[in-house]
Amino acid sequence: MIKVVVVEDQHPILRSIIKQIANFSSEVSVIGEATDGLSALERIQKLRPDIVFTDIRMPGIDGLELIENIKKTLPGTIFVIISGHDEFQYARQAMKLGVTEFMLKPIHQKTINEVLSKLAETIHYDRHERKKRILYDTLHVKTISESLTQTTLDYDDDSNAYSYVVMLICAGSYSNFPVDVSHPLCDFWSHIDLPAMISTHWSGYQDIWILDGQAINEQILIWGFKEKKQDNVDPKSLAESVMCILSSFLVPITISVSTKTGSRLADLKIEYQFSRAMLRKNLIFGASSIILSDKSKLAFSRENFTIESIIEPKKLSILLSKKNKALFLKEIEHMLEHMHKEAYKQSAIEKCLKVVAALCENMEINQHDRESDIELEIEELLSFSLNYKALFLALSFTFSRFFSNKSKKDVPGSIEIILDRVDKYLLDHYSENISIHDIAEMVNLNSSHLSREFKKYKGMSPMDFLTHTRIQKAKELILTKSDFKLMEIAGMVGYSNQFYFSKIFKIVTGLSPSEYRVTFTPSNSLPRD
């Protein structure tokens, strides 16, 4: 509901405007009226309307003084000036107060319709974005504050009239690394107009919000609907429809959808947390699937396999001790083939591979390699591999180092020379389209090994180093190239997609490019958006 107050000192005009507003739409309601400035000030502060239609010249205080007073306490209030032909000088003053809508007397229905259509669109958009910010902050805070336990997302007349369904969408594997731009699908969602796809298929819902997930390859969908329609809402059907849309992109998609609805912010956060926990536990590696998030399933579900039924620890230990790399990797390959055939969950694969990793570390082979966290490396390989073939290639390189007779002391400085080369290449070619695989191929190293060594050397992965280099260059361009559009700056630092550039810029700096521009650039030399 959009709430309106009308202020006009001439009763016939006042009654006419109120009637015309009522004729526009039942979603717009006149909740108050006044014939003088002082009464209007009191009623607006009490009723807190979305829109105020006000005359300029009237008893008490005039319309301009009314606007100035209200803007101090209710800055979001939208004002529409009702003026005569001889009051243009007042209109100019109103524009300085932020007023953009003016109507000349006599007021016609067509004029009312045009103004309200425009303002209604603005108000609905602002409400949607405000709720989106509230939702994002709620879902991403670590703990639920006491104030959220009873707080609803709705704050209009129809408070508590809507319920919400939480849906989490993951492209590729589950990632334990929230912000890692070296992830192969880090920009997947930037190339998909998910809002347009969703709005095309589901225009009947009151609201649909699309938010960034905890990991860079995740998106959150929150569906809002009237509670009286709740019985007709099937979360599973919603998930199946979304899956149908995304199946054309040839990337494994997992949708974890809440089976329960909620109206309080605390409810939404809890359902999101369980949806992500179910995603972590039940995502099928290398395949698309739908997970119905249920607290009881998370609490009482058990794995339907034993480690011993998949791998033979004693056999692998013998192969390790004899340094028979070929047969060892063949065993790993057979294990992965079995897992692929049986559609194993990523969590189960991770558990098995960590057992293998422990066997490798327990063997007295290449003790110098123990300084690396191989369990963390296993998690990274699973997160970044899109299929079993890619996973096996990455694992082959990782496990191969346990069969090498060389230590770091045998090749002093060699890796440092390679890393210096990578460092220089990234600094010289940051504006180009670069992937971790391109860099690894250039220096003849496995990408995971390169990332691990580079992180020891620089404190961050090659792709993180590239990202920070690009954002630093972007910050310099924003401050020095005032005639460049932000889209042009994005291209100059290696981002073909402006929206993805903006997302990464905010992750690194805490500000969007536009916010950074406004904060650090003199107002007389702002670059164009």
From TrEMBL:
InterPro entries given in the database record: CheY-like_superfamily, Homeodomain-like_sf, HTH_AraC, Sig_transdc_resp-reg_receiver, Tscrpt_reg_AraC-type_HTH
Write down the superkingdom of origin.
Bacteria
Q: Which Pfam families match?
A: HTH_18, Response_reg
Entry-annotated residues carrying 4-aspartylphosphate:
D55
Question: What PROSITE patterns does this protein map onto?
Answer: HTH_ARAC_FAMILY_2, RESPONSE_REGULATORY
Q: Would I find Transcription among this entry's keywords?
A: yes
Identify the residues that the record assigns to the Response regulatory domain, covering every copy: 3-120
Can you give the residue ranges of the HTH araC/xylS-type domain?
420-519
Looking at the keywords, is Transmembrane helix present? no
Q: Which UniProt keywords apply?
A: DNA-binding, Phosphoprotein, Transcription, Transcription regulation
PANTHER family with a match to the protein in the record: ARAC-FAMILY TRANSCRIPTIONAL REGULATOR, HTH-TYPE TRANSCRIPTIONAL ACTIVATOR RHAS
This chain belongs to which protein, by name?
Answer: Two-component system response regulator YesN
Specify the species.
Answer: Paenibacillus eucommiae
**Record lineage:** Bacteria, Bacillati, Bacillota, Bacilli, Bacillales
